[in-house]
Structure formats: C-alpha cells, structure tokens
Design a protein that fits this description.
10 helices; alpha/beta; TIM Barrel; nine-stranded mixed beta sheet; globular; single chain
Amino acid sequence: MIKNICFVGFLFLSCHMPNATKNIHLQFPPNFDVQGHRGCRGLLPENTIPAFIKAIDLGVTTLEMDVVFTKDLQAIVSHEPFFNHEITTKPNGTFVTEAEEKSLNIYTMNYDEVAKYDVGMKPHPRFIKQEKIKVSKPLLSAVIDSAEAYTKKNNLPAIHYNIETKTKAKTDEIFHPNPEVFVKLLVQVLQEKNILDRVMIQSFDIRTLQYLHQNYPTIQTAYLFEPPSLESLESRLNKLGFMPTIYSPAYELVNEKMIAECHSKNIKVIPWTVNEIVTMEQLISLGVDGLITDYPNLLYKKISQ
C-alpha cells in the first residue's frame, strides 16, 4: 500500500509541475513500469515522435512501440506493416480505405516513399479526442534520438523502450523479413544507439523471442498473448522454451493466480492495454508489475477525483 501511494504521488507531481519529473527524487515502486502504448495513442497520433515526447512528459517509465521494416531494410515505428486505413492520408491528400490498406505494403516501399504518407491528420474513429498533427511514420533511430535528447535536455530519468516485433509465420518475406533477419536488424539499431540495457522486446510470435534468447540472452523479453486464452502458463512456457522477463497478457486475462505463478518463477506481469481508471486500480491492487495504456494521463487524474 505504501509503495502504491508513493507511485501515484510520483506521477501526480511529475505531471503537475514544470519540466515533468525534473529535480524530483520521490521514491516509488522500482518494479512498477508505466508504459505509454504507442506513445500515448489516446492523446496524440500513435507511434509518432510527438506522442512519445508527450508520454515522457506524462511520467511514463517506458515507451511502448512497434517496429516493421521497409524494402531498404530501415526499421520504422508502425503497428502494421502496411498503411492502416484508420490513420493514413495518402500523398495526394486522400484517405486510405480499408479495402486498399494491405496493398500499401511498407515492406515493398523504400523509406523515402513511406515518409510521404501522413499518419496524424485523419480523424481517428476510436480515439476522438486525439490531437491531430501532420506527421509521418518515424525511423526507430529517430525515435530513440529524440527521446534520449529530450530526457537529457530536461534532466529526466533515462527512458526505457518496449519494442514489439511485428512478425507472423504466414507473412514471412511478404510483409516483413524472417525472424532471424528481423531480430538482427532490430538489435543492430539498438546496439548503435547503446540502449540495450534499457530495452525489452515483446512479441506474439514466439519465434522472434526464441531467436533473441538464443543469440542475445541479455536482452529482456516479453511474451504477449490475447483472448481467448485457455492455455496454461506452464503450457505456454513449455512452447517458448525459456523463462521470459515479462508475461504480457490482455488485461482481461489477469488474475491473482496468474500473478502468483509468474512471480514464483521470477517473471513480471505487465498487462495491456488498460484505459480505465477503475481497471488500473484493480490491477495495481492485484500486484501487477506495470501497465500499458493509451492514456498515461489517467494514472495521475485519479488522484484528484
């Protein structure tokens, strides 16, 4: 209870004082990780540099994001390996339609072509309060450079990164490189930016996690899964073949038993995507190790209610 109070107090102060967490040295649970989903998708266009900077200002400890690759093998931050109709405006000013979105395959485009598409101006049908700005899908390297420069300039704590590999067996070499190439290219960027000690790599595709564990065993891994899910923890771990750093289920699947089983194996539980204050409070009380949310601002709003 004391840890939770300190944690919420930290977020409240960090979001209501100038320069976010600058010069604040309050204690909060070291094992609790506030992750801004795609930056802060509920507030600014997803997976964009402005969204990540806003999330940092709101006090997140980790920036959650997704990575895909272009034809010229540039790592860019994007949830889909194509231009999603919900967020995309074509270079000619028209909106991408659902019928055509998968034909706009990022893996068949060089980055210069990808950069011509806007992903911040089209009104989002599910996030109606999202601020609209003109912005393109950024290079992963540019996201890291921007976040590192911003935290350093403002004397903020070093930010962590949770990066999802967007791969599926049925779309290997169609929408993305195979897992081995994908992971090698991704890790190369992270090594160049010297942030491997602050990175976790997450995936629904256990192939990328297995390759990571075998070839880069010091990198933290997060095992993602979603409903419906009747498979046991033991069964999932047996398929994976090793103990991941983090077990990351859809929040609806979380219960005390799951948390206890994971903690007994020294595995953290960080659910996604938690967007309601009541649910946040319930999960914190159950003992989760972090939360992934589209609305990092809600974590401090509950203080003033």
